[in-house]
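Hi everyone, sorry if this is the wrong subforum. Our group has a chain we'd like a structural model of before ordering constructs, and none of us has done structure prediction before. Sequence below.
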Amino acid sequence: MTLDNHIEALLFFKGEPVAIKKIASLLKKEESEIEEAIKELEKKLEGRGLTLVYHDRKVMLGTNSELSGFITELSKDELEKELGKAGLETLSVILYKGPISKKEIDYIRGVNSSYILRNLLIRGLVERDDEIKKRGNFYKPTIELLTFLNLNKIEDLPEYEKSREELESLKLGEQPEE
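Answer:
Right subforum, don't worry. Here is the predicted structure as C-alpha coordinates:
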Protein backbone atom coordinates (compact mmCIF):
# COMPACT_ATOMS: atom_id res chain seq x y z
CA MET A 1 0.00 0.00 0.00
CA THR A 2 1.14 3.51 -0.76
CA LEU A 3 1.61 6.31 1.75
CA ASP A 4 -1.48 8.15 0.43
CA ASN A 5 -3.53 4.96 1.01
CA HIS A 6 -2.37 4.91 4.62
CA ILE A 7 -3.29 8.58 5.03
CA GLU A 8 -6.72 7.99 3.51
CA ALA A 9 -7.37 5.08 5.90
CA LEU A 10 -6.11 7.12 8.86
CA LEU A 11 -8.35 10.09 8.03
CA PHE A 12 -11.34 7.80 7.50
CA PHE A 13 -10.73 6.06 10.81
CA LYS A 14 -10.25 9.30 12.77
CA GLY A 15 -13.32 10.99 11.27
CA GLU A 16 -12.03 14.42 12.36
CA PRO A 17 -9.25 16.86 11.44
CA VAL A 18 -5.75 15.49 12.02
CA ALA A 19 -2.63 17.65 12.17
CA ILE A 20 -0.06 16.94 9.46
CA LYS A 21 2.53 16.70 12.23
CA LYS A 22 0.43 14.00 13.94
CA ILE A 23 0.04 12.06 10.68
CA ALA A 24 3.81 12.17 10.18
CA SER A 25 4.34 10.90 13.71
CA LEU A 26 1.80 8.08 13.36
CA LEU A 27 3.20 6.95 10.02
CA LYS A 28 6.83 7.55 11.05
CA LYS A 29 7.51 9.82 8.08
CA GLU A 30 8.76 13.36 7.55
CA GLU A 31 6.12 16.09 7.28
CA SER A 32 7.31 16.87 3.74
CA GLU A 33 6.62 13.23 2.72
CA ILE A 34 3.15 13.47 4.25
CA GLU A 35 2.43 16.73 2.42
CA GLU A 36 3.44 15.12 -0.90
CA ALA A 37 1.28 12.06 -0.21
CA ILE A 38 -1.65 14.32 0.71
CA LYS A 39 -1.28 16.07 -2.68
CA GLU A 40 -1.32 12.65 -4.36
CA LEU A 41 -4.41 11.63 -2.41
CA GLU A 42 -6.10 14.88 -3.36
CA LYS A 43 -5.48 14.12 -7.05
CA LYS A 44 -6.89 10.61 -6.66
CA LEU A 45 -10.03 11.99 -5.02
CA GLU A 46 -10.79 14.46 -7.85
CA GLY A 47 -14.22 13.80 -9.32
CA ARG A 48 -15.10 11.44 -6.48
CA GLY A 49 -17.55 11.74 -3.59
CA LEU A 50 -14.84 12.56 -1.08
CA THR A 51 -12.38 15.41 -0.95
CA LEU A 52 -9.72 16.68 1.43
CA VAL A 53 -10.47 19.64 3.68
CA TYR A 54 -7.55 21.69 5.01
CA HIS A 55 -7.47 24.13 7.88
CA ASP A 56 -4.66 25.33 10.12
CA ARG A 57 -2.17 22.58 9.11
CA LYS A 58 -4.86 19.95 9.70
CA VAL A 59 -6.57 17.79 7.14
CA MET A 60 -9.68 15.64 7.10
CA LEU A 61 -11.90 13.80 4.66
CA GLY A 62 -15.01 15.68 3.61
CA THR A 63 -17.67 15.35 0.96
CA ASN A 64 -17.31 16.87 -2.48
CA SER A 65 -19.05 20.27 -2.64
CA GLU A 66 -20.90 19.16 -5.80
CA LEU A 67 -22.81 16.72 -3.59
CA SER A 68 -23.92 19.32 -1.05
CA GLY A 69 -27.60 19.07 -2.05
CA PHE A 70 -27.53 15.31 -1.68
CA ILE A 71 -25.76 15.57 1.70
CA THR A 72 -28.26 18.19 2.88
CA GLU A 73 -31.11 15.79 2.15
CA LEU A 74 -29.34 12.97 3.97
CA SER A 75 -28.72 15.28 6.93
CA LYS A 76 -32.40 16.23 7.09
CA ASP A 77 -33.34 12.55 7.15
CA GLU A 78 -30.81 11.90 9.91
CA LEU A 79 -31.98 14.83 12.01
CA GLU A 80 -35.60 13.72 11.79
CA LYS A 81 -34.79 10.19 12.98
CA GLU A 82 -34.66 9.21 16.61
CA LEU A 83 -31.21 9.12 18.19
CA GLY A 84 -31.30 5.38 18.67
CA LYS A 85 -29.57 3.31 21.32
CA ALA A 86 -26.01 4.19 20.23
CA GLY A 87 -26.79 7.92 20.17
CA LEU A 88 -28.43 7.86 23.59
CA GLU A 89 -25.57 5.80 25.01
CA THR A 90 -22.95 8.22 23.65
CA LEU A 91 -24.94 11.23 24.80
CA SER A 92 -25.24 9.74 28.30
CA VAL A 93 -21.48 9.17 28.50
CA ILE A 94 -20.87 12.79 27.48
CA LEU A 95 -23.47 14.12 29.91
CA TYR A 96 -22.12 12.20 32.88
CA LYS A 97 -18.39 12.29 32.13
CA GLY A 98 -17.89 15.31 29.85
CA PRO A 99 -15.74 16.93 28.82
CA ILE A 100 -14.49 13.63 27.45
CA SER A 101 -12.25 12.65 24.55
CA LYS A 102 -13.40 10.56 21.61
CA LYS A 103 -10.83 7.95 22.62
CA GLU A 104 -12.42 7.63 26.06
CA ILE A 105 -15.92 7.47 24.58
CA ASP A 106 -14.80 4.70 22.20
CA TYR A 107 -13.21 2.82 25.11
CA ILE A 108 -16.28 3.05 27.33
CA ARG A 109 -18.65 2.06 24.51
CA GLY A 110 -16.31 -0.53 22.98
CA VAL A 111 -16.84 0.77 19.43
CA ASN A 112 -15.78 3.66 17.18
CA SER A 113 -18.08 6.60 17.93
CA SER A 114 -17.10 8.96 15.09
CA TYR A 115 -20.42 8.72 13.22
CA ILE A 116 -22.50 9.09 16.39
CA LEU A 117 -20.44 12.08 17.58
CA ARG A 118 -20.83 13.78 14.21
CA ASN A 119 -24.58 13.20 14.39
CA LEU A 120 -24.77 14.65 17.92
CA LEU A 121 -22.66 17.66 16.84
CA ILE A 122 -24.91 18.31 13.82
CA ARG A 123 -28.00 18.15 16.04
CA GLY A 124 -26.45 20.68 18.43
CA LEU A 125 -26.61 18.29 21.38
CA VAL A 126 -22.86 18.23 22.03
CA GLU A 127 -19.98 20.54 21.22
CA ARG A 128 -16.21 20.41 21.20
CA ASP A 129 -14.61 21.86 24.31
CA ASP A 130 -12.14 24.44 22.99
CA GLU A 131 -10.61 24.91 26.45
CA ILE A 132 -9.00 21.44 26.35
CA LYS A 133 -8.06 21.39 22.65
CA LYS A 134 -4.34 20.74 23.25
CA ARG A 135 -4.96 17.04 23.86
CA GLY A 136 -7.35 16.38 20.98
CA ASN A 137 -11.08 16.90 20.70
CA PHE A 138 -13.08 16.74 23.90
CA TYR A 139 -16.87 16.72 23.87
CA LYS A 140 -19.36 18.23 26.28
CA PRO A 141 -23.13 18.78 26.30
CA THR A 142 -24.46 22.04 24.87
CA ILE A 143 -26.45 24.51 26.91
CA GLU A 144 -29.34 23.86 24.48
CA LEU A 145 -29.31 20.20 25.50
CA LEU A 146 -29.43 21.13 29.19
CA THR A 147 -32.32 23.47 28.44
CA PHE A 148 -34.13 20.73 26.49
CA LEU A 149 -33.63 18.34 29.43
CA ASN A 150 -34.98 21.05 31.74
CA LEU A 151 -31.78 21.13 33.81
CA ASN A 152 -30.34 24.22 35.49
CA LYS A 153 -26.94 22.58 35.76
CA ILE A 154 -25.37 19.27 34.76
CA GLU A 155 -25.29 18.12 38.40
CA ASP A 156 -29.12 18.01 38.34
CA LEU A 157 -28.99 14.84 36.23
CA PRO A 158 -30.40 11.77 38.03
CA GLU A 159 -27.72 10.00 40.11
CA TYR A 160 -25.09 12.34 38.65
CA GLU A 161 -22.39 11.88 41.31
CA LYS A 162 -22.70 8.09 41.49
CA SER A 163 -22.69 7.69 37.69
CA ARG A 164 -19.79 10.10 37.24
CA GLU A 165 -17.73 8.23 39.85
CA GLU A 166 -18.41 4.92 38.10
CA LEU A 167 -17.39 6.38 34.74
CA GLU A 168 -14.30 8.01 36.29
CA SER A 169 -13.23 4.60 37.59
CA LEU A 170 -13.03 3.35 33.99
CA LYS A 171 -9.51 4.25 32.91
CA LEU A 172 -8.23 3.53 29.44
CA GLY A 173 -6.56 0.15 29.35
CA GLU A 174 -7.86 -0.94 32.76
CA GLN A 175 -10.53 -3.52 33.36
CA PRO A 176 -13.45 -2.51 35.61
CA GLU A 177 -13.66 -4.30 38.95
CA GLU A 178 -16.51 -6.75 39.30
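For your construct planning: DSSP finds nine helices and six strands in the chain. The two ends are 43 Å apart (CA to CA).
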